[in-house]
Amino acid sequence: MKSVSVPLSLQQAVMRTLRHKLALASDFLQQTFPEPDVTYRQRGTIAGCARLQDWEIRLNPILLIENQQAFIDEVIPHELAHLLAYHQFGKVAPHGKEWRFLMERVFKIPANRTHQFSVNSVRSKIFIYSCHCQQHELTIRQHNKVLRGKSCYVCRQCGEKLALLDKYS
Protein backbone atom coordinates (compact mmCIF):
# COMPACT_ATOMS: atom_id res chain seq x y z
CA MET A 1 0.00 0.00 0.00
CA LYS A 2 1.22 3.46 -0.87
CA SER A 3 1.89 5.53 2.24
CA VAL A 4 -0.21 8.69 2.65
CA SER A 5 1.38 11.61 4.45
CA VAL A 6 -0.91 13.46 6.86
CA PRO A 7 -0.06 17.18 7.05
CA LEU A 8 1.55 18.20 10.33
CA SER A 9 -1.19 20.75 11.06
CA LEU A 10 -3.80 17.99 10.81
CA GLN A 11 -1.75 15.68 13.05
CA GLN A 12 -1.55 18.51 15.59
CA ALA A 13 -5.33 19.02 15.45
CA VAL A 14 -5.80 15.29 16.08
CA MET A 15 -3.52 15.44 19.11
CA ARG A 16 -5.21 18.58 20.50
CA THR A 17 -8.59 16.85 20.39
CA LEU A 18 -7.18 13.62 21.80
CA ARG A 19 -5.57 15.46 24.71
CA HIS A 20 -8.72 17.48 25.37
CA LYS A 21 -10.91 14.34 25.46
CA LEU A 22 -8.34 12.55 27.62
CA ALA A 23 -8.44 15.48 30.08
CA LEU A 24 -12.26 15.32 30.17
CA ALA A 25 -12.10 11.61 30.95
CA SER A 26 -9.42 12.14 33.62
CA ASP A 27 -11.50 14.84 35.33
CA PHE A 28 -14.76 12.89 35.12
CA LEU A 29 -13.30 9.56 36.24
CA GLN A 30 -10.82 11.16 38.66
CA GLN A 31 -7.95 9.17 37.23
CA THR A 32 -4.96 9.95 35.03
CA PHE A 33 -4.67 8.08 31.75
CA PRO A 34 -1.57 7.75 29.58
CA GLU A 35 -1.68 9.30 26.14
CA PRO A 36 -2.24 6.59 23.52
CA ASP A 37 0.03 6.21 20.52
CA VAL A 38 -1.59 7.51 17.33
CA THR A 39 -0.63 6.07 13.96
CA TYR A 40 -1.95 6.70 10.47
CA ARG A 41 -1.94 3.13 9.16
CA GLN A 42 -5.62 2.16 9.05
CA ARG A 43 -6.66 0.99 5.59
CA GLY A 44 -9.87 0.38 3.72
CA THR A 45 -13.20 1.92 4.66
CA ILE A 46 -12.57 1.83 8.42
CA ALA A 47 -11.98 5.33 9.82
CA GLY A 48 -10.14 4.25 12.92
CA CYS A 49 -9.30 1.34 15.16
CA ALA A 50 -8.45 1.12 18.85
CA ARG A 51 -5.77 -1.46 19.62
CA LEU A 52 -6.66 -2.15 23.23
CA GLN A 53 -3.64 -4.06 24.51
CA ASP A 54 -1.22 -1.77 22.65
CA TRP A 55 -2.94 1.44 23.87
CA GLU A 56 -2.88 2.65 20.28
CA ILE A 57 -5.30 4.40 17.96
CA ARG A 58 -4.91 3.75 14.24
CA LEU A 59 -6.43 6.31 11.91
CA ASN A 60 -7.20 6.14 8.21
CA PRO A 61 -5.09 8.93 6.70
CA ILE A 62 -7.17 9.24 3.53
CA LEU A 63 -10.50 9.56 5.35
CA LEU A 64 -8.90 11.98 7.81
CA ILE A 65 -7.62 14.23 5.04
CA GLU A 66 -10.95 14.12 3.18
CA ASN A 67 -13.15 14.76 6.25
CA GLN A 68 -10.84 16.72 8.52
CA GLN A 69 -12.95 18.39 11.24
CA ALA A 70 -15.83 15.89 11.18
CA PHE A 71 -13.30 13.06 11.40
CA ILE A 72 -11.54 14.66 14.36
CA ASP A 73 -14.82 15.44 16.14
CA GLU A 74 -16.25 11.93 15.69
CA VAL A 75 -13.50 9.35 15.23
CA ILE A 76 -10.98 10.51 17.83
CA PRO A 77 -13.41 10.35 20.78
CA HIS A 78 -14.96 7.14 19.40
CA GLU A 79 -11.63 5.30 19.41
CA LEU A 80 -10.46 6.86 22.67
CA ALA A 81 -13.70 5.68 24.32
CA HIS A 82 -12.82 2.11 23.28
CA LEU A 83 -9.44 2.38 24.99
CA LEU A 84 -10.90 3.93 28.12
CA ALA A 85 -13.71 1.38 28.34
CA TYR A 86 -11.15 -1.41 28.18
CA HIS A 87 -8.95 0.31 30.76
CA GLN A 88 -11.82 0.95 33.19
CA PHE A 89 -14.04 -2.09 32.72
CA GLY A 90 -11.90 -4.80 31.09
CA LYS A 91 -13.16 -6.81 28.16
CA VAL A 92 -16.63 -5.50 27.32
CA ALA A 93 -18.86 -5.34 24.24
CA PRO A 94 -17.21 -3.00 21.68
CA HIS A 95 -20.14 -0.59 21.55
CA GLY A 96 -21.77 -1.63 24.78
CA LYS A 97 -23.10 0.39 27.70
CA GLU A 98 -19.63 1.23 29.02
CA TRP A 99 -18.51 2.66 25.68
CA ARG A 100 -21.83 4.54 25.28
CA PHE A 101 -21.46 5.94 28.79
CA LEU A 102 -18.04 7.37 27.93
CA MET A 103 -19.25 8.84 24.64
CA GLU A 104 -22.46 10.40 25.95
CA ARG A 105 -21.74 11.29 29.58
CA VAL A 106 -18.03 12.00 29.52
CA PHE A 107 -17.45 13.34 25.99
CA LYS A 108 -21.03 14.61 25.53
CA ILE A 109 -21.29 13.43 21.92
CA PRO A 110 -23.64 10.94 20.23
CA ALA A 111 -22.55 7.32 20.52
CA ASN A 112 -22.57 6.48 16.82
CA ARG A 113 -21.18 3.06 16.01
CA THR A 114 -20.18 3.86 12.42
CA HIS A 115 -19.10 6.89 10.45
CA GLN A 116 -21.02 8.35 7.52
CA PHE A 117 -18.05 9.52 5.46
CA SER A 118 -17.93 8.85 1.74
CA VAL A 119 -15.66 5.86 1.16
CA ASN A 120 -15.47 6.02 -2.64
CA SER A 121 -11.79 6.94 -2.60
CA VAL A 122 -10.81 4.04 -0.30
CA ARG A 123 -13.22 1.38 -1.44
CA SER A 124 -11.71 -1.67 -3.04
CA LYS A 125 -12.94 -3.17 -6.29
CA ILE A 126 -16.50 -4.49 -6.12
CA PHE A 127 -17.82 -7.54 -7.97
CA ILE A 128 -21.48 -7.73 -8.91
CA TYR A 129 -23.21 -11.02 -8.19
CA SER A 130 -26.87 -11.78 -8.75
CA CYS A 131 -29.59 -14.09 -7.58
CA HIS A 132 -33.21 -14.48 -8.63
CA CYS A 133 -34.40 -11.29 -6.96
CA GLN A 134 -31.57 -8.74 -6.94
CA GLN A 135 -27.92 -7.83 -7.46
CA HIS A 136 -25.31 -8.02 -4.69
CA GLU A 137 -21.95 -6.29 -4.28
CA LEU A 138 -19.11 -8.50 -3.07
CA THR A 139 -15.67 -7.27 -2.11
CA ILE A 140 -12.54 -8.55 -3.79
CA ARG A 141 -11.87 -10.69 -0.70
CA GLN A 142 -15.32 -12.30 -0.91
CA HIS A 143 -14.96 -12.77 -4.68
CA ASN A 144 -11.58 -14.47 -4.26
CA LYS A 145 -13.05 -16.85 -1.66
CA VAL A 146 -15.72 -17.82 -4.18
CA LEU A 147 -13.08 -18.39 -6.87
CA ARG A 148 -11.03 -20.61 -4.54
CA GLY A 149 -14.14 -22.57 -3.51
CA LYS A 150 -13.79 -21.46 0.12
CA SER A 151 -17.14 -19.64 0.30
CA CYS A 152 -20.54 -19.73 -1.28
CA TYR A 153 -22.84 -16.76 -0.78
CA VAL A 154 -26.62 -17.06 -0.69
CA CYS A 155 -29.25 -14.32 -0.94
CA ARG A 156 -30.92 -13.69 2.40
CA GLN A 157 -34.23 -12.93 0.72
CA CYS A 158 -34.72 -15.62 -1.90
CA GLY A 159 -32.17 -18.19 -0.69
CA GLU A 160 -30.59 -18.61 -4.13
CA LYS A 161 -26.84 -19.06 -4.52
CA LEU A 162 -25.19 -15.90 -5.85
CA ALA A 163 -23.60 -16.02 -9.28
CA LEU A 164 -21.09 -13.61 -10.77
CA LEU A 165 -22.70 -11.41 -13.39
CA ASP A 166 -21.13 -11.54 -16.84
CA LYS A 167 -18.78 -8.55 -16.78
CA TYR A 168 -19.58 -7.80 -20.42
CA SER A 169 -23.33 -7.50 -20.00
Automatic annotation (TrEMBL):
<keyword id="KW-0862">Zinc</keyword>
<dbReference type="GO" id="GO:0005737">
    <property type="term" value="C:cytoplasm"/>
</dbReference>
<dbReference type="InterPro" id="IPR023483">
    <property type="entry name" value="Uncharacterised_SprT"/>
</dbReference>
<dbReference type="InterPro" id="IPR006640">
    <property type="entry name" value="SprT-like_domain"/>
</dbReference>
<dbReference type="GO" id="GO:0008270">
    <property type="term" value="F:zinc ion binding"/>
</dbReference>
<dbReference type="InterPro" id="IPR035240">
    <property type="entry name" value="SprT_Zn_ribbon"/>
</dbReference>
<feature type="domain" description="SprT-like">
    <location>
        <begin position="16"/>
        <end position="165"/>
    </location>
</feature>
<dbReference type="Pfam" id="PF17283">
    <property type="entry name" value="Zn_ribbon_SprT"/>
</dbReference>
<feature type="binding site">
    <location>
        <position position="78"/>
    </location>
    <ligand>
        <name>Zn(2+)</name>
    </ligand>
</feature>
<keyword id="KW-0479">Metal-binding</keyword>
<feature type="active site">
    <location>
        <position position="79"/>
    </location>
</feature>
<dbReference type="GO" id="GO:0006950">
    <property type="term" value="P:response to stress"/>
</dbReference>
<protein>
    <recommendedName>
        <fullName>Protein SprT</fullName>
    </recommendedName>
</protein>
<feature type="binding site">
    <location>
        <position position="82"/>
    </location>
    <ligand>
        <name>Zn(2+)</name>
    </ligand>
</feature>
<comment type="similarity">
    <text>Belongs to the SprT family.</text>
</comment>
<keyword id="KW-0963">Cytoplasm</keyword>
<dbReference type="Pfam" id="PF10263">
    <property type="entry name" value="SprT-like"/>
</dbReference>
